[in-house]
Amino acid sequence: MRETVAVLGPGAVGGSLAVRLLHGGVHTICVPRPDMVGILALAGISLEIEGGEPIVLRPEVREELSQPVHVLLVTVKAHQLEEAIERVDPASVESGVVVPLMNGLEHLDILRARFGPRVAAGSISRFEAYRVGRVQIVQTTPSAVLTIASGELAPEELEDTAAILRKSGAEVIVDQREKQVLWRKVARLAVLSAATVIARRPVGSLREDREWRPRLEAAIEEACAVAQADGVTLLASSQWTMIADMDYDLTTSTARDVTAGRPSELDAIAGSVVRAGERLGVPTPVLTELVAEALAA
User: Fold this and answer.
1) β-strands 136-139, 97-100 pairing
2) Which domains does the chain show, CATH number per domain?
3) pTM value > 0.85
């Protein structure tokens, strides 16, 4: 079987990777929402990278996935996950690897309930893209870094998966600890997603604000303490360095969704860290207050 990747939920992240994988010679199947099947099949996906000329490619499009694939990328929003995975036959990944590029801490349990041990933890970073139309995507960063890890799959399976995904042009890192892959991103994203929803301002504006910066720093400290209790050592100073390096005008997909009146991942991201703190006995008063304010907003 030729190398095949299926993308469940070809939005900004999944659609960008689908185009890049196709461009890299990988047979790519998109499994969108039912109402998008005909549109994607007819128009394809247009990807503009850093202001360059749009790349328009037409992946194979299916309403449901039943054929075997090497990799299934799950790139739906958290609130869409349970409905979306019903469109994928577990037999299609019996010999493949499921890689969710999702935010938060709680989606692996849902995926493993359907696909068993074929699920790896995954994360995408140094990447920003957004949709400007139903099939038009603008990617504002040159590439991306994907990190995958699994305590269930053999190392060679993860390496084979990484080799396929590298054909998208992304840097792909194989890690050893699933929790570390999830926590390294969610610790800061939980704070930033809530803050950008409340303030409706970009990251650079918040980190330079005399009132906001102490709140961000305290919430980052709390998130790192929860990670520590969950077995993952994160330095708050390192998380803050990453925030300091972010573009001034960077915002979060959560804030963009809220502004547009769409369902957001606020609870799946920030809420999951608060719930982890409750489960592990680590207080998160500042982050809890941010989440409450953001949900109210």
Assistant:
1) unpaired
2) 4-176 (3.40.50.720), 180-296 (1.10.1040.10)
3) yes
